[in-house]
Amino acid sequence: MNRTPEFEFVTFDCYGTLIDWETGIQNAFKQALKGTGLGQTEEAELFGLYQEEEKRVEGQMPYRSYRQVLALAASAAARKLGKTIPEKLSSFLAEQLPSWDPFPDTNPALERLATEYTLGILSNVDDDLLAGTLKHFTVPFDLIVTAERVRSYKPGTEHFEEARRIVGADRGWLHVAASLYHDVEPASRLGINTAWVNRKNSPEGRRLKGRIAKEVKDLTQLADWLTA
Fold it and tell me: Last residue of a domain, which of 72, 98, 124?
């Protein structure tokens, strides 16, 4: 797709796309497990285990708040490495999440896009946690859909169906995300235009060739494309 399509509405995944959640989680684990003798290799392994545990817990029924998901997934990941997170720190991820920083390109790109598009966020998070994160952004978002509101987690379709209900089927809509699993793949299956933010130059998206409207290396490149 060489020219910019006619979009009116641009929605974003939040954590991992706008917010550097990976750095936030890794720093939080370091703090929580300080003094346990965790080496660099184990720290990297712990992050991978956490990601898998989060997916597992989010997929369970009945619905749990994201605070509960964070605590359960973190504890399960630490146990797999033979570590125990102190009980008082079982909520450390939720406590720190609102302080996690945006990527350096996030706010400059959002400011450019806000002059031409209506912006939204579709996030796997609780309302109060997202409220803290929103303070880091320099533009407002007109549409917000959280896991708490739809009682479901992506890659379930409820976020996208609720956003589609609000946006309207006849309006041009682009959803932007870094996660193929949580966002790009399920949105594409619903026929929603998607842009993949591939910050790590991963080859994963090749399997979705022809189904993604645009692949970009960061949000600066996205803004260049959408404001061309």
Answer: 98
Characterize 156-189 residue by residue with b for buried, 16 or more Cβ atoms within 10 angstroms of its Cβ, and e for exposed: bebbbebbbeebeeeeebbbbbbbbebbbbbbbe
**Per-residue model confidence (pLDDT) at position 78:** 85
In the chain, which stretches have pLDDT less than 50?
Answer: 1-2
pTM score of the predicted model: 0.93
Instruction: Give the pLDDT confidence of 88-113 residue by residue, as tens digits.
Output: 666 888 999 999 999 999 999 999 99
Would you state the pLDDT for residue 96? 92
171 lies in a domain?
A: yes
Domain residues for 14? 9-20+101-226
Write down the catalytic residue from 13, 20, 126, 183: 13
DSSP E strands, the chain:
9-12, 118-123, 143-146, 173-177, 193-197, 214-216
**Would residue 127 show up in a list of annotated catalytic residues for this protein?**
no
Does 149 fall in a domain?
Answer: yes
- Closest C-alpha to 85, from 133, 43, 42, 36: 36
CATH of the domain at 175: 3.40.50.1000
